[in-house]
Hints:
This protein has helices at 18-29, 50-56, 71-85, 108-134, 162-182, 208-217, 226-237; strands at 9-13, 33-38, 60-65, 90-93, 144-149, 187-194, 248-251. By secondary structure, it is of the alpha/beta class. The chain has one domain (9-257): NAD(P)-binding Rossmann-like Domain (Rossmann fold). Strand 5 (144-149), helix 5 (162-182) and strand 6 (187-194) form a beta-alpha-beta unit. Helix 1 packs across helix 7 and helix 4 packs parallel to helix 5. The longest helix has 27 residues, at 108-134. The N and C termini lie far apart (37 Å).
Amino acid sequence: MTSLLAGKIAVxxxxxxxxxxxxxxxFAREGAHVVLADRSETxxxxxxPTADLIAAAGGHAxxxxxxxxxxxxxxxxxxxxxxxxxxxxxxxxxxxxxxxxALVDTQPEQWDEVLRVNLTGLFHGCKRAVQQMLGQEPxxxxxxxxxxxxxxxxxxxxxxDAPYGVTKAGAIxxxxxxxxxxxxxxxxxxxxxxxxxxxxxxxxxxxxxxxDYARRRTPWPRFGRPQDVxxxxxxxxxxxxxxxxxxxxxxxxxxxxx
Length: 258
């Protein structure tokens, strides 16, 4: 184990699968105690639960069932984390869903669910984390760090998924708002916006037409991996990320540079 995050207490939402799983695993490898939040402990891509992998590697983690779209769930999640560990150093708001529908094909129920999870869930995570961090003593001149997951599709159009693109644009905006409002309180808030990341999830993520579009848009000669995003998250969670707040870090293989 290395120690970039030694002694830090981190919560990662959507930690059972995909990018959230990779972030949680890397945080634990770097010495953090990770609280894994998700609606199910079962990875969508298969394999052992994230907590089991962390324990097998000698790390420290616990799973808590939570629906980020429910304030009571997030309140209970952070309350239990602090009761067990004394503070919250890092909050990663990663949990997200999608509809896979263009504007005219999106039903009101689909719109409501994507916004409930992706945007209201992120609001809940940011608000509850800030509430906790405001009362903490600073460590290395920081009371706490929040990392939100945006997307390149919060900056450029999201073909065939209007609700998802809207929520990711909102994630990038809310990151800036939190960063500016709470900088004086020594709370750091940054965003990571991935490009095409292959997670192993079935369904729409494997659609050949979408994969071909992403391949043509990405200058780097491979798609992204969850580990690429996890590496960026470790940096932003660590004390090496100094004088950086309100930033949107692109992990997109050059997508937006093209």
